[in-house]
Structures are given as structure tokens and as C-alpha cells.
Amino acid sequence: MAKSKKIYTIAQALEYVENKFSRAARIPLLIGYRSSDTCKSFKTLITLCNSMSIVFLQYDMHKEAFLMLQKAVQVDSELGKFGNSEDILWQGRLVTYNSLALLFHKLGRYKDSLKLLLQAENFLINLTESRIIPHADIEISVNMLIFITLWKVKRYKEAQVYLERSAKIINYIITGIKVSHISKVSAKNLYGIIVMGLASMKCVLESDPKSAVKMCKNAVKQLEGSHVLSRPLIFDLIQHIKENGETLYNFPKISQVEFRPGLFQIFNSTSSTDEFSNFRTRNVGDWLVTDKYEKVLFITTFVISPTTPWIDTYTLERAQLRKNESISQGNEEIIGKNKKAKTVMRRTQFRAESTPRSWVSKEYEYNYSPNHKISYV
User: What is the predicted pLDDT for the residue at 33?
Assistant: First the structure.
């Protein structure tokens, strides 16, 4: 009989990571910094911290996610100091870039997110120059995150470049030219949101809504199945384009974000978690990169290591609900208990519609949660 996996509370999971972190700090003193086992332990810990941050990001627990990423950056710094060239170009480091960028994106800090993502792109360039083939899963994740961030800051022509790169990669994945751990359903979801982006570019850059609608309708025909979450989003986009017409094309400009290539400093790992609110910035006023669009991207491109502590789903959901409730606590006290109960029910219903199933899920729910396999260790 298979041994059941231990279920952790949030506090126990954080303590688990802290113990691993303390143990990893002692390993170099015992076997030396230059030992291959030392760098291996660094990579394992970075993977663990990244996976934990992804779990917390899924439930909008930004402070906890940042705490995990802070530890990942500290260990990454040690790996960069004492690792060899192979360790420095280890692709698992890119997950830290992506997770930090997503955290800033969720907080509405798009320029900070973009700076990190451009560093990640520079990392990919260094891999190519070193004749190392980037993992398709990470490569498409970097390009899609850059796309949605450039879209948010209204740099559409530049965003199109990264979107087209993503389209090329997803075609390689679907046709089997590139190896990927993305499931078939996840590949369909990615294909769907990429087509949505291409159609939106038809509207914004070419003022051609008819071609955009045609592109979306062709994509819908290829995306059959109840688990294809991008399919209803495409229908929503078609309806929006038809209803709004040329009003979609009037966008203000925004200043450029400076980028100096060749730098690998992610951020100051001694930063305080106080600046990271646990409340997600409400994504309003965007007709393409909506909360649901971002959620589909998140659950298809962010992966979790199978060794990640299994956190009780109910505990995570309750923690998320408590944080959301505290935003309007003052108003709810005035309205009264009955109104408060109705408000909580409405929030719960909205969450069930707009967020993925828990990452601790049954087998038939697999495609609604981040992929469990990770191949960067």
C-alpha cells in the first residue's frame, strides 16, 4: 500500500523550508563550498523555495511568497559565487526571475516586473551563446510574461515581438519539435491565450477587428473540451471586439523602462516584506490581460516540484479569504452580520470562477492546477 503524503499547515510548511534553509547553510562548512554536493543542495533549496512561492502566489499570499523568493535569491547568490559555469547557467534560476516578476505584476508594479523579465531574457541569450538549449517551458513563460507586462504599460509593438516568439514556441511544443512537460490541455490553453493576444494586436496595431474576430473563431474550432479554460475567454474577446469597435484603439503612451544587459543581480535580498501587501491589485480596465487571462497563463506555465510540502487546501483558501475580508472589514461592520455573510458568499463564488483549483488536487482535476513536474534540477 502506497504511503500517504504528509499534509502541512501553512506554518508547518514555512518551518519546513526554514529548517532546509538552515541545513543548507551548514553544508558548505562541513564539505566545503567547492564541493559539487554543496551546489546540488543549493539548487534543491532554490527549487523548493520557488515552488513554495508559486503555491502562495496562487492564493494571493504575497508576503509569504516574497519570503520564499527572498530565500531563493540568497541561495542563488551563493550558487553564483561558488558554482562553476554549469551551475551559473542552471535554468532553474530563471524560475526565481519569473516568480518575482509575477509577484510584482500582481501588485501592479509593472516596471519592476519588466526589469526582472528583461534580465531573464538576457539569461536566455547567455544560454544560447553558451550553446545550451533553453527549456521550452521556461522560454515560453519568460516571453509570455514579458508580453503581458509590455501590454500593461502600453508598449504594443514591442509586446508583439514576444507574443510572436511565444506563438512559435507553442507550435513547436504542439508538433513535438520541442520537448515540454506542459500537458496537452495546458498546451491548448496556452495556444488559446496566445491567439487572443495576436487577435488583439490586429485591433491595436492594424485596426483590423474583422481579421481579429476571424482569427479567434478559427482558434475556437481547434479548442474542444470542457477543460480548455481559454475557450470561453476567446468568446468573451470576440464579443468585446464586436461591441466596442474602434474605441479599442485609443491608448495613451507611457515612458520607456531602462534596461542594461549583462547584469544578473535580481534585487536586494535584504528588502523588507512589509512593502508586499497580501492584497492583490484589482485588475480592471483591461479587455485582454484580465484576471482570468493571467490565471490561465499562471496555471499552464508555472510548475511545482513534486517534493514541495503538501499544504492543506482548506487552510490556504481560508487564509486567502481572511486576507480578502480584511480589506473591507470596516464597511462590513457597518452593514451588519447578515450583509457580511452574503458578501463572503459572493466572494467565494467569484473565486471559484476566476482562480484555479488547488494545486493539491485529485487526478481528474490535474489540468486546473500548476503542473507538478519540474525538470530543472
Answer: 61
Q: Between vectors from CA 323 to CA 354 and to CA 153, what angle results, nearest 5°?
A: 55
Would you state the cell numbers that stand for residue 356, as one nine-digit string? 484555479
Residues in the chain: 377
What predicted TM-score, i.e. pTM, was given to this entire model?
A: 0.77
Q: Average of pLDDT values for 104-119?
A: 92
Ranges of each domain in the chain: 1-90, 108-266+278-309
**249: DSSP letter:** G
What average pLDDT does this structure show over 142-169? Answer: 95
Q: Write the pLDDT tens digit of every residue in 311-345.
A: 999 989 988 888 766 644 543 443 444 444 333 33
User: What's the half-sphere exposure (Cβ side, CA atoms, 13 Å) at 147?
Assistant: 27
- Cβ(189)–Cβ(228) below 8 Å: yes
Three-state secondary-structure class, residue 7? strand
- Is 311 strand, coil or helix? strand
Cell numbers at 347, concatenated: 466572494
Q: Characterise 176 by phi-psi region: left (phi > 0), alpha (psi -120 to 50), beta (else).
A: left
**Residue 14 in this model has a pLDDT that exceeds 50:** yes
pLDDT computed for residue 249 by the predictor? 52
Question: What is 80-138 written as a DSSP string?
Answer: HHHS-HHHHT-TTHHHHHHHHHHHHHHTT-HHHHHHHHHHHHHHHHHHHHTT-PPPHHH
Q: How far apart are CA 144 and CA 195, in angstroms?
A: 12
Residue 188 has pLDDT above 50, yes or no: yes
Helix (H, G, I), strand (E, B) or coil at 243: helix
> Which residues make beta-bridge pairs with 311?
8
Say if CB 192 and CB 215 are below 8 A apart: no
The cell numbers describing 324, all together, are 480578502
Residue 7: phi and psi, rounded to 5, are: -105, 130
Catalogue the E-assigned strands of the chain. Answer: 7-8, 310-311
Q: What spatial distance separates the first Cα and last Cα of the chain, rounded to whole Å? A: 29
